Amino acid sequence: MVRTFLTLAALSCVAAACVCVGKARQTSYAVSTERDLIFSHRKHLQRPGTGCADCHELALMSTSAAETLVPLERTCLRCHNGARAPQDCALCHKAPDRARSTAPERRSFRFNHKLHLGFGNIAPALARAVDSGRYLGLPGDMRRHLNSDNPCLACHRGVAETDLATSQHLPRMADCLVCHSKIDPPFSCTYCHTEDARLKPASHTSGFVDLHSNHRAVPDKTACKVCHGVKFTCMGCH
Questions:
Q1: Domain shared by 122 and 221, yes or no
Q2: Average pLDDT for 198-221
Q3: Between the CA of residue 108 and those of 111, 133, 191, 199, 206, what are the distances in Å?
Q4: Taking 70 as the threshold, does the pLDDT of residue 218 lie above it?
Q5: Residue 197 pLDDT > 90, yes or no?
Q6: For residue 72, what are the β-bridge partners?
Q7: Residues 116 and 221 placed together within one structural domain of the fold
Q8: What is the DSSP letter of 145?
């Protein structure tokens, strides 16, 4: 069965291969990040009958952003060799001698994949927001990625066209605000962000107001609305 769900957290990593210590052996560990692996999302998603959840099956039941959603070695072996890791670890690992298992990452946000995947494909909602001008961000070329039947690619745009998935393929805050449109800072921030999250933009220094008065800061109300809401006005801060 072709399954097409993909996960927010899984794209910070990529599909795993073998963990090699001495002789090649079967293991259930997830392996380290994309920097250590030889893997192409583009090539795998081009294979007929291959969907995102064929590798990222853990996302379907994930309720926490802190969960490790990197595919396990046994997931890779369903197609690759079928039984045990190959003797040549360098086929998948850039540095086999440093291959290691991953630990759950500490996240500064909260996210429930299982809940959100239950809503289906949100690409049409994102497309309507862009087309109507309600998207609280600079959409760039995102519109061309919103015509896929793959619900994963609505949030993880461009991953099907790349070899190395990075944080650039994670959803933007403006994506979330298409549905989660009630913004009442700082109270609404804690719905999704942990208390130790660093949300203050680098531009918001102690002299931020002075930069405006000296015309050295170019106001971008669209960017302000992401944190301050659609009813944001300059007079609200000044």
A1: no
A2: 68
A3: 10, 29, 12, 10, 24
A4: no
A5: no
A6: 30
A7: no
A8: G
